[in-house]
Amino acid sequence: MKKKNLAALLMAGAMCFSLLAGCSSSGGQNSTAPSEAGTQESKPAGDNQGSDVVTIKVGGIGPTTGNNAQYGTATEWGAEIAVDEINAQNGPIRLELQYEDDTGVADTAVSAYNSLKDWGAQVIYGCTTTAPCVAVAAETFADRYFQLTPSASSPDVTANKDNAFQMCFTDPGQGTAAAEYLKSSGLGTKIGVIYNNGDAYSTGIADAFIAHAKEIGLEVVATSTYPEDTTTDYTVQLNACKDAGADLVFLPIYYTPASLILAQAKQMNYAPIFFGGDGMDGMLDMDGFDKSLAEGLLLMTPFNASGTDERTKTFVETYQAAHGILPNQFAADGYDCMYAIYEACCQIDGIDGMDHAQLCDALIALFTGGDFSVDGLTGTGMKWLTTGEISKAPVVVKVENGGYVTQ
Amino acid sequence: MKKINKKSLNGFINYGIVIAAFAVIQVLLGMGRLSNSLQSLLVPACCYIVMAVSLNLTVGILGELSLGHAGFMSLGAFSGITVSILLQNALPMASARLAVSMAVGAVAGALGGAIVGVPVLRLQGDYLAIVTLAFGQIIKNIIMVLYVGVDETGFHIAASSERFNLGSDGVAIIKGPMGAVGVTKLASFTAGFVLIMITLLVVQNLVNSRSGRAIMALRDNRIAAESVGINVTKYKLMAFVTSAALAGAAGALWGLNYSSTVASKFDFNTSILVLVFVVLGGLGSIRGSIIAAALLYVLPEMLRGLGLDDFRMLIYAIVLILVMLATNNDQLKALVGRVIPKRKKVAANG
After folding, report:
1. CB-based contact A195:A225 (threshold 8 Å)
2. Which chain B positions have a beta carbon within 8 Å of A172's beta carbon?
């Protein structure tokens, strides 16, 4: 009996190690691929340009495991594509990206940030989600690291910090823009709102939307909430909107719960216009999602994967080839972040030998200077306000025949 | 000369281990040999050690399964943060403000413990586990919709953002799902060390006292303990409230170590994590809880450095399983018994 136990333990151990051996070899391939590419490219560059090439170490933070993993991996992959493109250009600046997992939790994000500091990061790219980003931004502010987040949209991220900048819209900005759009387009006379009151992103948009709707005279007839994105039954919330006679339902939520809401609304024969925020982007690529459910859905997103310009096409193709799925706006924001950092670094004189604090000050001066603008996948001529917010135009798209059509 | 009994010797060894660890880390810090990543883990590790030791009081010493320990931590964190912001002008000295915040956190945790404990500790076993689980979720959900702020007209508290009418110069302390934002970091490793020492002092003295023996008698056989006149509710409540108070203090330290804290951090998973530390460290073993909490909290962060980034949470889970299997393996215990003869008896019994 006892021998059996010991044998079982040994077997379990052996199994785990063989599993790990398998994992680490594939993990090794993953992690070495960019650096291999880097060394291959830096050799000819070294021949061409001597020692002029400066490598900027960018430390990325986002959830690659846990509940928010799909957003974190998207920002990681989007950024990787940009880094590969930039390094292939043989320009004066190279980027080296190290991405750390924060599981979407604030304290883990701070630990991840500290391990990036140990690695020698000069610029911080992240975090993907809001709460971790607020915690990390306070640290980068104290330590003087320049921080650019692809998708943490709360105004708390940039509040009272000169070093934190956003690539996405702020939540209140998006809520206000949504109300403005509804007013000007004349869609919906009675508006229902369903949002996640346990989530900073969703509450931030919904609060601003409701407040602004009141100001400009839109009629919000129903407001209902749910506590967690893992909720699976939304019939109560939908019934509240239906009973109030809402002909348009605003959903400032992520696409996973939104897909269930669409399905359940159809089951109960409730067909208002659904209008979502940028968290809705990605729904069409969900496994097993019936695209006909999303037909007619309006959403505000800065990125359209079926866009026809050359850059978007190349990005979507590369992304699909590497990861087998369509990129969403998180990936596009990540891609743009890398270009923003790269183009800013190219404009800084004497960047070689700058430490992170000097680089931080130089980048802040550039980003808030008013002359600096970046063209990317999520907008052209993107500029930043001194508060750290981005100014770019929100785009509303409509789902038609399983694709986006810009309104 | 009075002979030191075995139990108090055991307790002194625990103090010794903590003091030695503190001294070693301080020396390493002084020499600048500690990486940033390790430095950032010191305070949270202290919090988790206190959480594990205090939960051990409920689970290991009292013998009741509690799945809502993070709820008390949450109470402590948010009350501690609120107090620290309210006292910002009245009490400029950071360490004093931290001490007051932690004391308030402990009181909040104790109150929460008493509110849950009085009706609930009449239940036993699985029922208690379910109710504490629900309590943890209730606390989390309440704080998620709670808006707390202060302006010149006084203290404001509301359950929705519409009813939260803060003056233009007011400071919002807790903003519903956004949590507490803009907290001044007050926590330090020394404070964490002091809190661990206080926790050890409280828990070990309680365990070795008359009350502690009554609590353990309840664990071993409730009917027999009742038959000799031990007041079941009183002693259960004593252990439970003490445990909640310590968790509240740990929560306050935690909350003041980060510039932002959200209620969703203190969910069921955190409760389970602490329970895992207690179980792997050994039910009823204070030293086991300390070591397990410290090692297992630091482990996933240490795995970052090994180039196994993508799999670190998987490896963490596997390590947990292996530790569980190894600590429950009779043959391994016998092996340890052969190396350390004193353990032989334990191994033979176990």
Report:
1. yes
2. none
State whether residue A4 is helix, strand or coil. helix
Considering only CA atoms, give the Rg of chain A.
23
- Cα–Cα distance, A202 to A252 (Å, whole number): 5
Q: How far is B301 from chain A (nearest CA, A)?
A: 7
**Closest to A130 measured CA to CA, from A112, A114, A151, A111:** A151
Contact B178 A204 (CB under 8 A): yes
CB contact under 8 A, B41 and A2: no
Cβ-Cβ contacts under 8 Å between A and B: the total is 137
Task: Kindly state the tokens that stand for B196.
Answer: 């661990």
Q: Cβ of B258 and A31 within 8 Å?
A: no
Q: Which of B44, B178, B310 sits opposite A27 (nearest CB)?
A: B310
Read off the pLDDT of residues A29-49 as tens digits, 9 standing for 90 and up. Answer: 333 334 333 333 333 434 444
Whether the link from the prior residue into A127 is cis, omega within 30° of 0, is: yes
Specify the fold of A172-301. Answer: Rossmann fold (3.40.50)
Residue A60 β-bridge partners: A99, A125
Residues in chain A within 8 Å Cβ distance of B313: 65-66, 101, 103
pLDDT tens-digit map of A319-362: 999 998 889 889 999 999 999 999 999 999 888 888 999 999 99
- Judged by a CB distance cut-off of 8 A, whether residue A323 touches chain B is no
Which of 3.40.50.2300, 3.50.50.60, 3.20.20.150, 3.40.50.720 would CATH assign to domain A52-169+311-391? Answer: 3.40.50.2300
CA atoms of A146 and A160, how far apart (whole Å): 14
* Residue of chain B nearest A206, judged by CA positions: B161
State the DSSP code for A374: B
Per the CB < 8 Å rule, is B329 touching A5? yes
* Chain B residues lying within 8 Å of A207, measured CB to CB: 161
Give the strand pairing for A248-251 and A273-276.
parallel
> CATH 3.40.50.2300 in chain A, residues?
52-169+311-391, 172-301
DSSP for residue B184: P
**What pTM did the predictor assign?**
0.85
- pLDDT tens profile A60-93: 999 988 878 888 999 999 999 999 999 999 888 9
Q: How many residues does chain A have?
A: 407
The ipTM (two decimal places) reads 0.86
Name the residue among A13, A30, A203 with its Cβ closest to that of B310. A30
Cα separation, A16 vs A11, in Å, equals 8
Residues near A51 by beta carbon (within 8 Å), at least 6 away in sequence: none
